[in-house]
Every structure is written in C-alpha cells, then in structure tokens.
Specification:
The complex is a heterodimer.
Chain A (H helix, E strand, L loop, with lengths): L1 H32 L6 H38 L1 H4 L16 H16 L2 H13 L6 H25 L3 H18 L5 H10 L5 H15 L5 H4 L3 H28 L12
Helix pairs in contact in A: 1-2, 2-9, 4-6, 4-9, 5-6, 6-9, 6-11, 7-11, 8-11
Chain B lengths: L1 H32 L7 H40 L2 H17 L2 H16 L7 H32 L3 H18 L2 H13 L5 H15 L5 H5 L2 H19 L1
Helix pairs in contact in B: 1-2, 2-8, 3-5, 4-5, 4-7, 5-8, 5-10, 6-10, 7-10
C-alpha cells in the first residue's frame, strides 16, 4: 500500500516534469509547424512508456539503491571503520588510510554510469549517426571509466584538501591539448558526454559520498568541500572519450599497415 | 503480440545487465568490506525489480517517442526555413525544461540557505524564496541561451572547440572573482540542468538539424548542445552571485 502511494507520487511528479516539455513540443507543432505529427499514436505511446519507465526507475532507486548507497558512504567514511587496521587509536589518519573510500568511489562511479539512462540514449544516437563506428558499449565504458577516475580523484581531493581549482584547471588544459590531437568527429560527442553523466543515478549517490567525507575528515566543511565531485565527474569523461577515439584511430591505422591514411569519418 | 513480448523480454535482460555492476559493487562492499548483512532484503529486491522494469520501459519509449519527435521537429523547422521560429523553439525548450527541473529547485533552495547563513541576504523565508527563484530563473535563462547558441552554431557550421574553450576560460576567470561560497553551487548547477528527458530530446534535435542541413555532418555538427547547456549555467550562476 505504501509502495503504491509512493509510486503514484513519483508518477505524478514525473508527469509534472514532462508537461512543460510536451506543451512546448505540441504547441510549436500545432501553431508554428502546422502539420500533423507523423505516427502521432506511436509517439504518444512512446511518451507514455518514457513517463512510466522513469517513474518505476526512480521509485526503485529510492527504495533499493539510494538508502543502501548512502548508508555505505556513511559507513565507509566513519572514523571507526577507517581505524580498524591501525595499531593505536591515537594514530592520525593519513590520506592513504582512506583507500577503501577511493576504491568505492571508483567502483560506484563506473557502475552507476553504466546504468545512466541519458548516457544510454546518447550512445544509441551516436552509434546510429556514426554508422556503427562508435560502439554503444565502447562509448559507455569510456565514459564510465572517466567518471570513475574523476570521482576517485575527487574523494582524494576532499581528504587532502587540495584546492579544487588546481585539478579542474589542469584537467581543462589537458582537454584543450587533447582536442587538437583527437579525431575531429569525436570532439563534440566528448564534450557532450561530460554533461550527460551527471544525471539521475550518479548524482544522489556521489553527493552522499562527498558530504559524508567532508563531514568526517577533520578540517573540511561540508558546504565548501562537499560540492565539486560533480565537476570532477563531468571533466574526466571528456578525456577518456577522446582517448577512446584516439586509441581506436591508432588501431585502425596499424591494422591498415600504412600510417598516412586517416580513418574514414566523412560519411554522412 | 508474441514478437513484441519477446522484444520486451530481450530488452529487460539488457537492463538487468546494465544494472549488474551496481548490484555487484554494493554487494561486494556490504558483505566483504563492511561485513554487514543487507538490511531489508525484500525491499531491496522489489526496488531492483522496479529499476529493471523502469529502465526497460524508458529505453523502449525513447526510441518510440522522444527520438522521432525531436528529429521530425528538426526536419520540419529546416524545411520551413524560418530561423527565428527555430530559435524561439530552442529557447523555449531549454528554458521550459529547466525551470521545472526538481534537481534545480533543490539546489536553488540549498543555495539560498547558504547565502542566508553567510549574511548575503536576510535569513527569513521571504528573502530566501526570492533569492532561490531568482537563481532558478537565471539557470533556466542560461540553458535557453545555451541551446540557442548551440543551434546557431549548427546552422552556421562553426567549430565547437573554440567556443567551449572560450567558455571555460570565462569560467576560470569568474571563479577567481566570484564570492567563494557560490563556486561549488555554480559548478554543480552545470550538472543538474541536463535531465533524463531533456538529453535525448536535445540530442535528437541537434542530430536532426545537422542531418537536414546541406553540408553539415551530424557527427561533427549534431552533438554539442548538451556541452553548451552544462557550461552556461556555471557562468550565469557565478554572475548572479557577484551581482546579488
């Protein structure tokens, strides 16, 4: 019964989110384009599926994964747990004593990104548009690796207290340099993948981890240091996606046995 | 009927595979590292069933509804040849999908609290709500503008690199000047604006536009709208923090 009420609540708020989008689309279709929508019935059913799907997805996350993820973030950052392996209770925790936190950050970053619905959407589209040159799984794994590295490094930053600007600026300089060497066709997609990753699944879990860490590490404030993990999670996928394309292009070159032909990419 | 049921089963298996890594990670840490039993096993299992069903339906509806409508509108606008209507539509789409975004409402309320604690605005519900609404409006405006810039870029065929780089340089400069407490919120607001429904729609719009305009490559010109939509909120929110 309680499940049903929360399902209805979530369904209602999802519909509320979709209404402005639907109003804009159908409003423009009716008054500006003035053309009947092709396969209207199919499109409407599709919208219905999206709404129901999203509501189920959010309900399930709220019931199963988020409480567990938050609890684990709390337990892993708990000083009692961190001190387990240390000899004396008086020993000061060094940054390396948080190794389980980094491993958890890496693993949870990668696994939540794999399940991120908007990333799946973009990967399907990219695969279709590139005529199969960009694999759905290749892109998703590249992005997942980027998020994993980003979040692991972000937790390290919270533990050590190094200012966030250093990492972000270095990261952007790297992105800029890489942009000049990466195959041209991957660049816009790589930039997009930075924004796509931080969506329904990743943000709540990662935010819990960041806040938990900032609360327990001495000298950190949750307000100033709890933020910023998201920024890391959107920076590193750009690097790994471009890297993925660079490796693919390099392999293609080697497979052809001659180094002067660029990979085929201008087919549209 | 049987065929579509088979397709549904198949995509359900796909969703299960997508979720397997999360389940493995959580189980590994819970059982082996933290050495604690799973609390409320039945609740967790029901939740997982819902997640799998939800992901399956979502992907199903995505290819049936969201992708086709986004692309067909892009084609229709390209055929109509009216740039001003296309720009109006882009702005409305960016603004409309952002202003109602629940994640943004939450972040804005949080930001108002931080500002009130810092003594920037009065610590009473009225001042906070004015501030939070102003912030929401700012972010929605910036996303609307971002989609417009992105669409104009596709029409003109400008290359994305320099625009994004210029944007990030601006973010860096403003980080140095903006009040310290707004920076974290500004960086986060770039991430929260791109919701699960907006991303597929905007992607389909960009790819549809690029493929219906002669001389544009959907791969090079079609993507990139999301990149703008996660960049401009950072700039606008920091500006908001500096002005208010």
């Amino acid at each position: 019964m309680e499940l049903l009420t929360s399902l209805l609540n979530i369904l209602f708020s999802t519909i509320q989110d979709v209404i402005p989008i639907a109003a804009i689309i159908f409003g423009f279709q009716l008054f500006v384009i003035r053309r009947p929508i092709a396969n209207l019935r199919r499109v409407l059913i599709g919208f219905g599926y999206v709404i129901v799907g999203l509501a189920f997805f959010l309900l399930g996350l709220e019931k199963a994964l988020f409480p567990l993820g938050r609890l684990m973030a709390e337990q892993l950052t708990n000083p009692d747990f961190l001190r387990q392996g240390l000899d004396s209770a008086a020993a000061v925790l060094g940054w390396q004593d948080y190794y389980w936190v980094y491993i958890f950050a890496f693993a949870i970053g990668a696994s939540t990104t794999i399940a991120e619905p908007s990333l799946i959407a973009v990967a399907i589209k990219a695969n279709e548009v590139s005529g199969g040159a960009i694999g759905i799984w290749g892109l998703r794994l590249a992005v997942a690796l980027g998020v994993a590295i980003g979040i692991a490094l972000g937790t390290y930053r919270i533990v050590t207290g190094v200012p966030i600007h250093y990492f972000i600026i270095t990261g952007y300089v790297f992105v800029v340099i890489q942009t000049f060497f990466a195959p041209k066709m991957i660049v816009p997609l790589a930039y997009d993948s930075g924004g796509v990753t931080t969506s329904t699944v990743t943000v709540p879990l990662v935010a819990a981890l960041g806040l938990g860490l900032a609360e327990t590490v001495p000298g950190r404030s949750p307000l100033l240091d709890g933020f910023g993990l998201i920024a890391f999670a959107s920076l590193f996928p750009m690097i790994t996606v471009m890297g993925y394309a660079q490796i693919a292009a390099y392999k293609q070159k080697r497979a052809r046995g001659c180094g002067d032909k660029p990979p085929a990419q201008e087919s549209s | 009927m049987q065929k579509s049921l088979y397709a549904l089963m198949k995509s359900m298996l796909g969703s299960l595979r997508d979720l397997a890594p999360i389940i493995l990670v959580i189980a590994f840490f819970q059982l082996l590292v933290l050495q604690q039993p799973l609390p409320d096993l039945i609740g967790v299992m029901t939740g997982l069933v819902f997640v799998v069903l939800g992901l399956t339906f979502f992907i199903y509806g995505l290819e049936m509804g969201l992708f086709p409508i986004g692309e067909s509108m892009a084609h229709a606008f390209a055929r109509k040849g009216s740039v001003s209507w296309l720009i109006t539509f882009s702005f409305a789409l960016g603004f409309g999908t952002t202003i109602a975004e629940p994640a943004l409402i939450a972040v804005a309320a949080e930001a108002a609290q931080v500002a009130a604690n810092g003594g920037v605005i009065g610590n009473n519900p009225d001042a906070r709500s004015v501030y939070a609404n102003g912030l929401r409006f700012t972010v929605a405006l910036s996303v609307g503008l971002a989609i417009v810039i992105g669409v104009v870029r596709i029409l003109k065929g400008w290359s994305i690199q320099y625009m994004i780089m210029g944007g990030y340089i601006l973010v860096m400069l403003m980080t140095a000047m903006a009040p310290q407490w707004i920076i974290g919120i500004a960086y986060d607001s770039g991430g929260v604006t791109t919701s699960t429904i907006t991303v597929p729609l905007v992607t389909a719009l960009g790819v549809g536009l690029a493929s219906s305009i002669k001389g544009r490559n959907p791969m090079i010109d079609g993507f990139g709208l999301i990149a703008f939509a996660s960049l401009t909120p950072m700039i606008f929110v920091m500006a908001y923090g500096m002005i208010v």
